[in-house]
């Protein structure tokens, strides 16, 4: 028998509503579960008596279990393998930020210690991006909002999480209602994350980008662009055929006018495919009307996915220089901080099952960008 996660807001709210129980009790249940990780939700004190049989028969505090946690040698990243109730696995990666380590833009890092968790929204993905290991798995299932929030709960047992990025397995905007609900939960008591510290990354599902600002104001939007023109995009991201670049840019302009926020652009550098000088110029022109931060990600070949090759640092520098000096675009260069746990940008790998984690992870600490 399967249970709902107590973090499935829609499920618990409708069960409570049917029983005449006020939804105002729900945050106190979540708070209890977070503070008492070994207890079930029905241990929450002071609920209406009719809430207890509902919690006992239909809900579990956590429907997923933490199968393993692998820490990188430098201790900066920890990859969590999470087993869902249906037996599928997803991964979440915690990236710790320590201002005493490294620099940003040539200057010492600022701020306090904090962590970002990179979260999955689907098991597999139907978008089929050629450079992404998750794309080769095909689509298996959508996560519920509770299963998405549970990844944050697992991560909180390792580190104080301040930022959440939806850049794990799956296309978040293909599981729109669950992702929206999960983010709404994350910004409420007891999690209380700032929406400004949550980033949703998409290949560009236009009809859902059009709704995003109204449903999730202040949340950051990242676009996995990866090509400056439609034909290259379709070659490496087959799903892009349904979302022409011109229409995507129009949608981003409308989004930016409403949100007044910078948009992150993810661009994986593939040798001989999208990394030439002409591509940098095309990209600069394409993004000319938008306020963006471009994240250049070196491709990291894994196993059978090595149809593509990594570009040299010199090529990245050349590309970066064109965007910066000619088009005045803000760039961040990727740091492969999770490589030693097979989690480098683009293809985080489940070591035990050889399942793959998809979206390129946002490499630079989001708070460095002051967006
Ligand atoms: S890059 Fe993202 S959208 Fe593309 S296949 Fe991978 S997980 Fe899906």
Give a concise summary:
Helices cover 30% and strands 22% of the residues. It is an alpha/beta fold and 371 residues long.
Question: Your description of this structure?
Answer:
- By secondary structure, the chain is an alpha/beta fold.
- It is built from 11 helices and 18 strands.
- A 10-stranded mixed β-sheet has the order 3-4-5-8-11-12-13-14-15-16, with helices on one face. The chain has a two-stranded parallel ribbon with strand order 1-2.
- Strand 14, helix 10 and strand 15 form a beta-alpha-beta unit.
- The radius of gyration is 21 Å and the shape is elongated.
- About 8% of the residues have low confidence.
Strand order of the largest sheet: 3-4-5-8-11-12-13-14-15-16
Mean pLDDT: 88
The portion of residues forming beta strands comes to 15-25%
C-alpha Rg (nearest Å) = 21 Å
- Spell out which ligands are present: iron/sulfur cluster
Total number of helices: 11
Topology, number of strands? 18
Structural class: alpha/beta
Please state the overall shape, judged from the principal axes of the Cα atoms: elongated
How far apart the termini lie comes to 45 Å
Task: Let me know the largest β-sheet.
Answer: 10 strands, mixed
Order of helices and strands: EHHHEEEEEEEEHEHEHEHEHHEHEHEEE
Which regions are unreliable across 5 or more consecutive residues at pLDDT < 50? 335-364
Helix coverage percent of residues? 25-40%
List keywords for this structure.
371 residues, alpha/beta, 10-stranded mixed β-sheet, two-stranded parallel sheet, 11 helices, 30% helix, elongated, binds iron/sulfur cluster
């Amino acid at each position: 028998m399967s249970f709902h996660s107590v973090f499935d807001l829609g499920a618990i709210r409708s069960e409570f509503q049917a029983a005449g129980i006020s939804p105002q009790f729900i945050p106190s249940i979540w708070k209890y579960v977070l503070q008492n990780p070994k207890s079930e939700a029905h241990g929450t004190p002071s609920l209406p008596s009719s809430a207890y049989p509902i919690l006992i028969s239909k809900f579990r505090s956590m429907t997923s279990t933490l199968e393993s946690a692998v820490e990188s040698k430098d201790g900066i990243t920890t990859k969590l393998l999470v087993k869902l109730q249906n037996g599928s696995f997803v991964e979440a990666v915690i990236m710790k930020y320590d201002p005493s380590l490294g620099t940003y833009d040539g200057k010492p890092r600022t701020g306090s210690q904090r962590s970002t968790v990179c979260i999955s929204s689907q098991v597999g993905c139907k978008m089929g991006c050629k450079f992404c290991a998750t794309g080769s798995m095909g689509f298996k299932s959508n996560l519920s909002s509770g299963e998405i929030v549970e990844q944050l709960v697992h991560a909180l047992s390792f580190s104080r999480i301040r930022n959440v990025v939806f850049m794990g397995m799956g296309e978040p905007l293909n599981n729109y209602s669950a992702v929206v609900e999960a983010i709404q939960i994350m910004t409420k008591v007891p999690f209380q994350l700032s929406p400004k510290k949550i980033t949703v990354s998409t290949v560009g599902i236009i009809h859902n980008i059009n709704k995003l600002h109204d449903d999730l104001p202040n949340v950051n939007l990242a676009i996995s662009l990866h090509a400056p023109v439609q034909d290259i995009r379709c070659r490496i991201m087959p799903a892009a055929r349904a979302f022409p670049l011109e229409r995507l840019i129009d949608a981003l302009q409308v989004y930016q006018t409403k949100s007044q926020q910078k948009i992150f652009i993810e661009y994986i550098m593939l040798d001989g495919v999208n990394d030439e000088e002409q591509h940098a110029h095309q990209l600069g022109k394409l993004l000319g009307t938008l306020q963006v931060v471009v994240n250049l990600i070196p491709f990291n070949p894994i196993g059978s996915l090595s149809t593509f090759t990594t570009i040299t640092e010199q090529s990245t520098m050349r590309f970066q220089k064109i965007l910066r000096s000619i088009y005045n675009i803000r760039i961040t260069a990727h740091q492969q901080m999770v490589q030693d746990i097979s989690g480098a940008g683009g293809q985080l790998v489940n070591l035990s099952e050889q399942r793959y984690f998809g979206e390129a992870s946002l490499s630079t600490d989001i708070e460095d960008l002051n967006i």
